[in-house]
C-alpha cells in the first residue's frame, strides 16, 4: 500500500507538537526537583545548626561539671592538709572519717547512676531480642510455604483465560501491522520515553535524603 503523504504530514505535525509538550514537561518537572533539593538542603543545614548548638550546650555543661569537680577536689585537699597539720589525734581521725564518708558517698552515687543507665539499655535490647526470637524456624517455614502456595495452584480456568488473551493480542498485532504500512510509528516511542522518565520516583528519592548519623 502506498503511503498517504497527507497522513504522513499530520503525523509529523503531531510528533513536533508532542516533542514540544515533552520538552516543556521535562523543564517543569526539573524545576520541581530543583525546588525539592533546595528545600532539603536548607532543612539539613537547619538540622546541623541545631545539632551544633546542642553539642555546644552539652560541652558547656560538661565543662561546668568538671570545674565543680575540680573545686571539690581542691576543697578536699585543703581539708586533708589542715587535718595533717593538727596535733589533736582525735580531731584528726574525726575529720578524716567525715571526709572519707563524703568522698565515698559521692563516688558510689556516680557508680549507681552509671549502672542504672547500663541496665536500662540492656533491658531495651533484651526486649527487642526476645521479640525477634519468639518466631520459631517452623513458623518461618510455614509463612514461606503459605506465600508460595498461591503460585503453585493455577486452575484450568486461568490457563484458558491466558490462551484467550494471547489470541486477542495476536489479532491486535495483525491489525496494527496494517496501519504500520501506512504511517511511521514514532509517536509511540516518544510516549514511551516520556513515561520512562518517572519523575515521581525522583521526587520521593530526593525527599527521603537525610543526614547520616555517626
Q: Which structural traits does this protein have?
A:
6 helices; mainly alpha; 214 residues
Explain the overall architecture.
The protein has helices at residues 5-85, 89-133, 137-152, 156-180, 187-196, 199-207. By secondary structure, the chain is mainly alpha-helical. The relative contact order is 0.10. It is built from 6 helices and no strands.
What kind of sheet is the major sheet?
Answer: none
Mean pLDDT: 70
Unreliable residue stretches: 108-112, 118-130, 148-154
Beginning-to-end CA distance, first to last residue: 69 Å
Shape: rod-shaped
Mind telling me the C-alpha Rg?
39 Å
* Class of secondary structure makeup: mainly alpha
Number of strands: 0
Beta-strand proportion? under 5%
| Helix percent band | over 70%
Helix-strand layout with pairing:
Blueprint: H1 5-85, H2 89-133, H3 137-152, H4 156-180, H5 187-196, H6 199-207
Helix pairs in contact: 1-2, 1-5, 1-6
Summarize this entry quickly.
The protein is an all-alpha fold.
Amino acid at each position: 500500500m502506498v503511503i498517504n503523504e497527507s497522513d504522513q504530514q499530520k503525523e509529523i505535525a503531531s510528533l513536533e507538537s508532542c516533542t514540544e509538550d515533552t520538552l516543556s514537561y521535562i523543564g517543569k518537572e526539573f524545576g520541581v526537583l530543583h525546588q525539592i533539593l533546595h528545600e532539603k538542603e536548607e532543612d539539613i543545614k537547619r538540622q546541623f545548626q541545631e545539632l551544633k548548638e546542642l553539642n555546644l550546650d552539652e560541652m558547656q555543661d560538661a565543662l561546668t561539671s568538671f570545674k565543680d569537680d575540680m573545686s571539690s577536689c581542691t576543697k578536699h585537699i585543703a581539708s586533708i592538709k589542715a587535718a595533717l597539720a593538727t596535733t589533736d589525734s582525735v580531731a584528726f581521725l574525726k575529720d578524716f572519717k567525715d571526709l572519707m564518708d563524703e568522698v565515698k558517698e559521692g563516688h558510689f552515687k556516680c557508680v549507681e547512676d552509671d549502672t542504672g543507665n547500663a541496665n536500662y539499655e540492656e533491658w531495651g535490647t533484651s526486649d527487642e531480642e526476645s521479640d525477634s526470637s519468639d518466631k520459631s524456624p517452623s513458623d518461618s517455614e510455614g509463612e514461606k510455604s503459605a506465600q508460595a502456595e498461591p503460585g503453585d495452584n493455577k486452575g484450568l480456568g486461568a490457563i484458558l483465560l491466558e490462551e484467550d488473551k494471547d489470541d486477542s493480542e495476536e489479532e491486535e498485532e495483525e491489525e496494527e501491522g496494517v496501519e504500520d504500512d501506512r504511517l511511521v510509528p514514532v509517536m509511540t516511542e516518544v510516549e514511551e520515553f516520556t513515561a520512562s522518565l518517572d519523575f515521581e520516583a525522583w521526587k520521593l528519592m530526593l525527599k527521603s535524603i537525610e543526614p547520616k548519623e555517626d
